[in-house]
């Protein structure tokens, strides 16, 4: 503990005083010979979480879980956090949303990820879109350790996640912290309003200015930092200075990056951008790791915006994340499944190696290894089998490492190797080859031989990043590039990946806003029956009317929508808009069939048939007029819930078409088992007709297969009359493509196809 010349422990705080007031003062010599005088004083201690939660105001917690046992456990745990906590528990997300229609937002939401009707990512997105939910902490509980499930929830707006079965000590610690910070954020909002009033009267946040600023911010029992739009620190209260182990004079005037590192600066910049977009609404608190002279500290950080005569000011409110009980921390330090260090020790070791590399001038390589297609193995053989396989993988990786290399299991099927000291970049490439060689031989688990491969991403300190968060993020970006490049390979991080990631973040933000702002429209591409020449249906295709970029192709955003959990609400919107439009056209006399694309993600959830039924009821479109299109892989990867949904849709009268047939892994078994009504030949096979013998043989085979199973067949991407005539001779039933028309806005489709068809039908009567 540092002490002043007066003997007072320096973590309580220092206040600047006039040079003449020498009693109980310390001097701080600055560059240029200037001397500042500081007087010791004690700040209010940071409020304990228990005290903050169990104050006079009652905390409200919302629990959503479809399993009654889990719901009861979560309810009891939430009630045990502090006295006076009120819990409202629901089995379905829609019931919770209905309750919120008549009640104010709660202080904390605990929701299961895998529930009927909608998954955790979708429910989090819907909650975040509600007024007043911008800064409500949302914790998602999931049994899945795979990163994609946890990250989908976090990307949709969740504050944190817990693995099920929930550790009771960990739950109480996290819930207590989040409730405390929620209360402090409310007090911060009140302070922000008061600060803005003072500024309108001529106040300033500059160091040494009006003491009313200090009084307002110092009164918060939490650490406060204020920055300008350029991330330059203009004020910190004593609690913040104590929390990060620095005096106020050491940080005021510096940038966030200079004081806390590149990773913290990046998070701060993204937060500022979001605050500017939302007009200053408080942001949901996040866990952040901050480098201090005493080492890395994990903080809970919330942010708000104040508008001042000098410009916008970001006010960051932080508190130290309450340490989990020792037994939980011990389990977290080493992964109990594989025996190798876990994420916590990884971060500590990487921070240590970075500090050592700075002192000695060498490099550090971070290798992130992710198993290819591990989830399929886990689902096929079960969790115990998958656990045994992961332990075997960890042993093989460890056998390939050098004495100074550090191995950790980050999460799920993801491992990280820290290679230090690194003398040459070629040494990192050599290690990548050794890591991949660990998968050359099959794994023998419980009498089975399992062939695995892995993808590795590599990033190097100091060239690629300066702190733990940035290096781990860059290694992850490189690992994803390796997967996209064909798997069983490695890639080094590059700045191009960083730029792509930044563009992806911007696109994700714009995509979330687009759904709320109704920037999407539906276009319709006609499908023509070859025998009669009649338009017998249309495929509904979504387009994004971007306010700056114009019409954006779905190829640019559908995959992202799947990754961030927006595909379910987006598809529901498209389905309802298209069904409503077709119901109107049906009343006009057009009796075509509507085809709508569904994602495989939606059929991994339960209750998709309920969503379809409700939309059909609301719009008035008969179920016999609707057809759902799924790609082959989505059907092949089916599970029992998906099969049950497809069978229920068939009973309702909804058709099922296999889109892009022949481009994936085709299996005759699923054509026999599933209620498929049509096959769609992918345009990649049609494009080469009539000149390509290979494409011709494939198309002939698909048409023959469809006839053998009694299915109708549609050819996509038909652009020439020669293609149309050949497809007709082969026995193809319908065509779709630019020869007939491109995807059209509803008004144009109606003018070109609906009205003529309706007039023809009326004349025939």
Strand arrangement within the widest β-sheet reads 21-22-24-25-26-27-28-29
Total domains: 5
- What is the beta-strand fraction? 15-25%
> Percent of residues in helical segments?
40-55%
Counting DSSP E segments of at least 2 residues, the number of strands comes to 30
CATH architectural label of the largest domain: Alpha-Beta Barrel
What is the top-level CATH class of the largest domain? Alpha Beta
Overall geometric form: globular
Largest sheet: 8 strands, mixed, barrel
- Uncertain regions spanning at least 5 consecutive residues: 1-56, 205-210, 323-332
How much is the radius of gyration in Å? Answer: 30 Å
If you average the pLDDT, what whole number results? 77
Protein architecture, described:
- With 765 residues, this protein is an alpha/beta fold.
- It has five domains: 1-42, no CATH class; 49-166, 3-Layer(aba) Sandwich (Rossmann fold), CATH 3.40.50; 183-320, PAS domain (Beta-Lactamase), CATH 3.30.450.20; 334-493, Alpha-Beta Plaits, CATH 3.30.70; 523-758, EAL domain (TIM Barrel, Alpha-Beta Barrel), CATH 3.20.20.
- 44% of the residues lie in helices and 23% in strands.
- The chain contains 29 helices and 30 strands.
- Strands 21-22-24-25-26-27-28-29 form an eight-stranded mixed beta barrel, surrounded by five helices. The protein has a five-stranded parallel β-sheet with strand order 5-4-6-7-8, sandwiched between helices.
- Strand 21 (520-529) and strand 22 form a beta hairpin.
- Helix 4 (120-128) packs parallel to helix 5 (147-156), helix 6 (168-200) packs antiparallel against helix 7 and helix 14 (374-381) crosses helix 15 (383-399).
- It is globular.
- The model is unreliable at 1-56, 205-210 and 323-332 (pLDDT under 50).
């Amino acid at each position: 503990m540092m002490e002043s010349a007066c003997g007072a422990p320096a973590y309580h705080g220092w206040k600047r005083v006039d040079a003449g007031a020498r009693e109980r003062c310390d001097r701080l010599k600055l560059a240029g010979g200037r001397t500042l005088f500081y007087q010791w004083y004690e700040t209010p201690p940071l409020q304990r979480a228990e005290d903050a939660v169990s104050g006079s105001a009652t905390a409200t917690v919302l629990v959503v879980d479809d399993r009654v046992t889990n719901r009861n456990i979560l309810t009891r745990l939430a009630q045990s956090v502090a006295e006076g906590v009120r819990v409202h528990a629901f089995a379905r997300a829609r019931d919770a949303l209905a309750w919120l229609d008549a009640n104010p937002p709660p202080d904390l939401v605990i929701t299961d990820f895998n529930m009927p009707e909608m998954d955790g990512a979708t429910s989090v997105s819907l909650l975040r879109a509600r007024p007043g939910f911008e800064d409500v902490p949302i914790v998602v509980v999931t049994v899945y350790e795979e990163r994609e499930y946890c990250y989908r929830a976090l990307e949709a707006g969740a504050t944190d996640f817990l693995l099920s079965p929930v550790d009771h000590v960990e739950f109480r610690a996290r819930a207590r912290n989040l409730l405390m910070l929620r209360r402090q954020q409310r007090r911060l909002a009140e302070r922000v309003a008061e600060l803005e009033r003072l500024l309108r009267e001529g106040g300033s946040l500059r160091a040494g200015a009006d003491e009313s600023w200090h009084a307002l911010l110092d009164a918060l029992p939490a650490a406060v930092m204020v920055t300008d739009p350029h991330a330059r620190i203009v004020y910190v209260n004593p609690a913040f200075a104590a929390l990060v182990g620095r005096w106020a004079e050491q940080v005021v005037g510096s940038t966030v990056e200079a004081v806390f590192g590149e990773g913290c600066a990046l998070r701060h910049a993204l937060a500022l951008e979001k605050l500017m977009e939302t007009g200053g609404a408080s942001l949901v608190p996040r866990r952040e790791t901050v480098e201090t002279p005493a080492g890395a500290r994990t903080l809970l950080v919330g942010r708000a915006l104040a508008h001042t005569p000098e410009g916008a000011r970001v006010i960051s409110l932080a508190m130290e994340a309450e340490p989990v009980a020792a037994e939980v921390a011990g389990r977290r330090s080493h992964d109990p499944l594989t025996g190798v260090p876990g994420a916590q020790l990884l971060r500590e070791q990487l921070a240590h190696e970075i500090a050592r590399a700075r002192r000695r001038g060498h490099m550090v390589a971070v290798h992130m290894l992710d198993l290819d297609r591990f989830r399929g193995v886990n689902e096929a053989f079960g969790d115990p089998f998958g656990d045994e396989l992961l332990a075997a993988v960890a042993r093989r990786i460890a056998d390939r490492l050098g004495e100074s290399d550090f191995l950790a299991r980050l999460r799920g099927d993801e491992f990280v190797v820290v290679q230090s000291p690194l003398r040459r970049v070629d040494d990192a490439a050599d290690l990548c080859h050794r890591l991949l060689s660990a998968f050359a031989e099959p794994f023998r688990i419980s009498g089975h031989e399992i062939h695995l491969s892995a993808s590795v991403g590599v990033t190097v300190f100091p060239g690629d990043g300066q702190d733990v968060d940035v290096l781990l993020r860059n290694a992850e970006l490189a690992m994803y590039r390796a997967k996209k490049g064909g798997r069983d390979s490695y890639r080094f991080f590059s700045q191009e990946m960083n730029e792509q990631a930044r563009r992806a973040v911007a696109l994700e933000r714009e995509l979330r806003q687009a759904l709320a702002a109704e920037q999407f429209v539906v276009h319709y591409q006609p499908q023509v029956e070859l025998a009669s020449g009649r338009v017998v249906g249309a495929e509904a295709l979504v387009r994004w009317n971007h306010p700056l970029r114009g019409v954006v192709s779905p190829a640019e955003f559908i995959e992202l929508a799947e990754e961030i959990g927006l595909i379910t609400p987006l598809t529901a919107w498209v389905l309802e808009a298209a069904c409503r439009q077709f119901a109107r056209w049906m009343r006009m006399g057009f009796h075509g069939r509507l085809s709508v694309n569904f994602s495989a993600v939606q059929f991994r959830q339960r209750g998709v048939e309920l969503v379809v039924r409700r939309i059909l009821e609301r719009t008035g479109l008969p179920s016999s007029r609707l057809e759902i299109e799924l790609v082959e892989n989505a059907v092949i990867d089916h599970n029992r819930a998906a099969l049950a949904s497809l069978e229920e849709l068939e009973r309702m009268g909804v058709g099922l078409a296999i889109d892009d047939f022949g481009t994936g892994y085709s299996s005759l078994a699923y054509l026999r088992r599933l209620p498929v009504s049509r096959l769609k030949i992918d345009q990649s096979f049609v494009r080469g007709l009539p000149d390509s013998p290979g494409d011709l043989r494939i198309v002939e085979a698909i048409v023959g297969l469809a006839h053998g199973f009694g299915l109708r067949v549609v050819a996509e991407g038909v652009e020439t009359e020669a293609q149309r005539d050949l497809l007709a001779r082969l026995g193809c039933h319908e065509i779709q493509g630019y020869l007939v028309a491109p995807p059209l806005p509803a008004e144009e489709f109606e003018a070109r196809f609906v009205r003529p068809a309706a007039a023809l039908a009326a004349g025939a009567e």
